[in-house]
């Protein structure tokens, strides 16, 4: 008897290039969840007939109720019986309560070789520091940002004429393949 396939949700907020890469490479995605209308949910997921859920974040103020928002996300995941979550450019930091339910089963990608250059400005920070090599990391997401167990990394050289945009594009090219491979390998361990 073969093991039950694990159900994967991909969280997006923007262009959906990682999601598009997954789907174009035959990767099965059971749900696409977005925090705002975006190309990832409005075009890519719909074109590929992937179920979608928009858990709209309308409040971007300091008073944002992260816990209430996370409870909405958890309800959607449970409704779809999701086993694993892959963050793919999802811009909302979720409350720690999601890790009480999905701890160790939320994957994220980061445009640097963690533990170096954590946070939102990793590519800019790597260039400012003057590194000759950076890259991307796939890791287990935790309540603390960019510190979870590293699942995979790949180096990307920094060229002398790199801008933040050119370097980030080269990192994203590597990231598309690395993330797909890391998710596949991770799911086989469950």
Automatic annotation (TrEMBL):
Which residues bind (6R)-10-formyltetrahydrofolate per the record?
66, 108
Q: Which residues form the Formyl transferase N-terminal domain?
A: 6-183
Protein's UniProt keywords contain Disulfide bond? no
Asked whether the UniProt record includes Ligase among its keywords, one would answer no
- This enzyme's EC code(s): 2.1.2.2
Pathway, per record: Purine metabolism; IMP biosynthesis via de novo pathway; N(2)-formyl-N(1)-(5-phospho-D-ribosyl)glycinamide from N(1)-(5-phospho-D-ribosyl)glycinamide (10-formyl THF route): step 1/1
User: Matching InterPro entries, A to Z?
Assistant: Formyl_transf_N (IPR002376), Formyl_transf_N_sf (IPR036477), GART (IPR004607)
In this record, what's one Pfam family?
Answer: Formyl_trans_N
The biological processes this protein is annotated with in GO are:
'de novo' IMP biosynthetic process
Active site, per annotation = 110 (proton donor)
Marked site (Raises pKa of active site His) residue numbers: 146
Alphabetized, the UniProt keywords read: Purine biosynthesis, Transferase
Protein family per UniProt: Belongs to the GART family.
Q: What is this protein called?
A: Phosphoribosylglycinamide formyltransferase
Question: Which species is this record about?
Answer: Candidatus Kaiserbacteria bacterium RIFOXYD1_FULL_47_14
Task: Please name the taxonomic classification of the source.
Answer: Bacteria, Candidatus Kaiseribacteriota
Q: Which gene encodes it?
A: purN
């Amino acid at each position: 008897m073969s093991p039950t396939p694990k159900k994967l949700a991909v969280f997006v907020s923007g262009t959906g290039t990682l999601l598009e890469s997954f789907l174009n490479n035959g990767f099965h995605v059971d749900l696409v969840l977005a925090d705002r209308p975006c190309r990832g949910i409005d075009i890519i997921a719909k074109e590929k007939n992937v179920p979608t859920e928009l858990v709209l974040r309308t409040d971007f103020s300091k008073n944002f109720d992260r816990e209430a928002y996370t409870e909405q996300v958890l309800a959607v995941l449970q409704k779809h019986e999701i086993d694993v979550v892959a963050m793919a450019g999802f811009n909302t930091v979720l409350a720690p309560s999601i890790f009480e339910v999905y701890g160790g089963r939320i994957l994220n990608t980061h445009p640097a070789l963690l533990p170096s250059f954590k946070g939102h400005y990793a590519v800019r920070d790597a260039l400012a520091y003057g590194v000759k090599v950076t890259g991307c990391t796939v890791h287990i997401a935790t309540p603390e940002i960019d510190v979870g167990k590293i699942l995979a990394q790949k180096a990307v050289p920094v060229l002398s004429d790199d801008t933040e945009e050119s370097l980030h594009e080269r990192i994203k090219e590597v990231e598309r393949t690395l993330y797909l491979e890391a998710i596949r390998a991770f799911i086989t361990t469950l």
